[in-house]
Amino acid sequence: METRWPTRCHREQHSSAAVAAYLSAHGIDADVVMGRTSPDPSLLKPSPHLVVEAMQALEADPHREAFVLVGDSVSDVTAARGAGISSIGYANAQGEASSPVTGRR
């Protein structure tokens, strides 16, 4: 059974092909899968550049639609804040739950 997430886009700092293969292998469907498009490291998180690109690819207005970035690092929260959207942090490794990453607009 395939999982349909309420989000429409998966944006990652890795290649689109790698992300698409991972999502497919785990039965996760996304309308848009985007990967890194530039070798410029200043455009990676914590820069909001990748988040803004994802919103633009969806032709979406963060002031009119609900957006949230789910991530496992402080740079994810920082990027979300820089793009003007909310974020949810989670611990993806044992021991990280004692210091969760969270963020709000």
- Sequence of secondary-structure elements: EEHEEHEHE
Rg over CA atoms, rounded to whole Å, is 14 Å
Order of strands across the biggest sheet? 1-3
- Share of residues in strands: 15-25%
Q: How far apart lie the N and C ends?
A: 34 Å
Helix content: 25-40%
Shape: globular
Structural class of the secondary elements? alpha/beta
CATH architecture: 3-Layer(aba) Sandwich
Our count of domains comes out at: 1
Number of helices: 3
- Main β sheet profile: 2 strands, parallel
Characterization of this structure:
The chain has 105 residues and is α/β, with parallel strands linked by helices. It has one domain: HAD superfamily/HAD-like (Rossmann fold). Helices cover 28% and strands 17% of the residues. It has 3 helices and 6 strands; from the N terminus they run ββαββαβαβ. A two-stranded parallel ribbon has the order 1-3. A two-stranded parallel ribbon has the order 2-4. The protein is globular.
Any key phrases for this structure?
105 residues, alpha/beta, two-stranded parallel ribbon, 3 helices, 6 strands
Helix/strand layout:
Elements: E1 3-4, E2 9-11, H1 16-25, E3 28-29, E4 32-34, H2 49-57, E5 68-71, H3 74-83, E6 86-89
In short:
The protein is of the alpha/beta class and 105 residues long. It is built from three helices and six strands, in the order ββαββαβαβ. Helices cover 28% and strands 17% of the residues.
